[in-house]
Amino acid sequence: MHFVNKWLCSCTVLLFLLSGAATSYATESEDSVKVAIIGKLAKFVSGNTPSDHHFTIAVLNNPFGTLPDKILQRKMIHKYPVNIRYIQSLKQLKNAQVLYVPKMNHRAMKKLLQTVRGKKVLTISDSRGFAQRGGMIQLYRKAQNMRLKINLHAAQQAGLRIRSSLLKIADIVEGDVL
Questions:
Q1: Are 151 and 129 in contact (CB under 8 A)?
Q2: How far is 25 from 173, CA to CA, in rounded Å?
Q3: What is the pTM of this model?
């Protein structure tokens, strides 16, 4: 009986550890998809030509670890090599063509969007309500698929043009351009 209890306990611990590893792997896998999508989305947007011979993607408060470097570092966007810049504040945004915004509260999001308004920076986030609040592209999950919400007005206000081929596969939303 003691052997059976010990075996059951070992199996329970093993299952617990494996489920945590699977969750960690699933999160990293989803993050990898998000990072790859961020790089692809930039190719469908024009009007934000780099001035320093690099296409810069700024990642605010990096939630992805080293994934952006691993996935995007050797890529080209609009014939420019991709440069990943990890930033802690918008003061470090200089010369970026894309800004990835992690999930944040409504007040912080509103302030951030007011700060970047009118700048030729494509804003992307997976934060709920991002596009409706004035962000340009929101990533979200629907039935195991990553989907897009695009605030076309926000992009146009910044002087950016989004290709119709991307608009066809996205949900177009109306929202505040703060």
A1: no
A2: 32
A3: 0.82
